[in-house]
Amino acid sequence: MNTFNSLMLSQPFNALIGSLLYLLTYASFLNLLKYPRNWILPSASSTFVTVMLAIITVAFVSISSIKSSVGPDFSSMLFLSGFILVLFGIIASPAIDFNPGSRRVVEFLANYGVSAGLWMLLPAVIGAYAFPEARIHGVLAAAIAVELSWYFRYRWTDKRRSYSLEKHDTLVLNAQAKGNIQTFSKLHGISELAFSADGIEWNGCNKNTPPCPFNLYTNKLGLNTAPCCREHMKDLAYYVSSCLKDMKVDHWLEGGSLLGAVRDNGNLLAWEDDVDISFLIDDKSTWSSIAKVLSDRGKKDGYYVDV
Length: 307
What we know:
The chain is mainly alpha-helical and 307 residues long. It has helices spanning 2-9, 11-32, 34-37, 44-62, 74-96, 104-112, 116-119, 121-130, 134-157, 167-176, 181-188, 214-220, 227-246, 255-263, 287-300, and strands spanning 161-164, 193-196, 199-204, 251-253, 277-279. A hairpin with a 2-residue loop joins strand 2 and strand 3. Helix 2 runs antiparallel to helix 4 (44-62), helix 2 crosses helix 9 (134-157) and helix 4 runs antiparallel to helix 5 (74-96). The longest helix is centred in the middle third of the chain and has 24 residues, at 134-157. The termini are far apart.
């Protein structure tokens, strides 16, 4: 019993529990971010779980150790609550920015939020110095470690491909910028645009780079879908079609995707933000069976599949 009590009171153990609680809260919070991207509100149950995990994390940190005194430390509670709220706000900004009515500060954070780890490093150091408790140190260390890992991962693998903007892309961009594309680009933080004597290019994203704030550019600024996104969607359409062919499922293009394929020689429309594929369901090929195969194969081939 004495050994167990000693373990419970040890600094490393408290730091470890604080880190694990934060990581659970972080993972639950990331799960919520998929909902704004699909234009729906998070489910009440998912939101409740995330909020409760955050409350438990803050409560665990703010309750003083048994050795000293009983009761919450309101100063550490206030600091950690603010730290998590600000950090999670930065992390959530790209998802929030999918709303065309988002504010300029959200737009800014969506463009530069990959640096969140660096921004929060100084507050974390100050907090660790001001609150010499292992529990809060564990939470702060876990938070900064996660954000810095994202930052350096993207910094080391951020190899973008340049795309020449097509005529209709440039025309739309020029119209929305009222003739001053460079000023427009700086104003809205469109870092993907590259200017040279030869013209304007778009530094496209891929699976190893931070994604651009897609809906900011298309729905709020009124630009055409980025050429890299159109290419990725086209590749993904071929991939899904290949999977359906292997399953011997009859399928076809519909809507805007079909219009683009016919009118633009097999390409997507310049403003397309999805691909419309329909397929037949019967007794052998049910929705559940098709979804499972697509999900399993997609995960195996490195795609994120949300069914």
